[in-house]
Design goal:
Strand order of the largest sheet: 1-2
Number of strands: 2
Shape: elongated
Helix content: 40-55%
Strand content: 15-25%
Order of helices and strands: HEHEH
Distance between the termini: 25 Å
């Protein structure tokens, strides 16, 4: 795995941890999609996330990310 893949893994881990620990009551769901998820990512791929907020606080986190 190249550095980009490692960075993308860290981003996914950070999002998961952040939602579980800081935004558990504010985010209904985080959907990951795109090449990272379907296994076709390359050196220039990013992580595609879609947040479904429950609250205004969750919405603010989603638009910041």
């Amino acid at each position: 795995m190249d550095n980009r893949g490692l960075i993308n893994d860290k981003v996914v881990q950070w999002v998961e941890h952040r939602v579980k620990t800081k935004y558990f009551n504010d985010i209904s769901m985080v959907l990951l999609y795109g090449s990272y998820i379907n296994g076709t990512a390359n050196n220039s791929s990013d992580v595609d996330c879609y947040f479904i907020p429950k609250t205004d606080r969750g919405y603010e986190m989603a638009i910041i990310f």
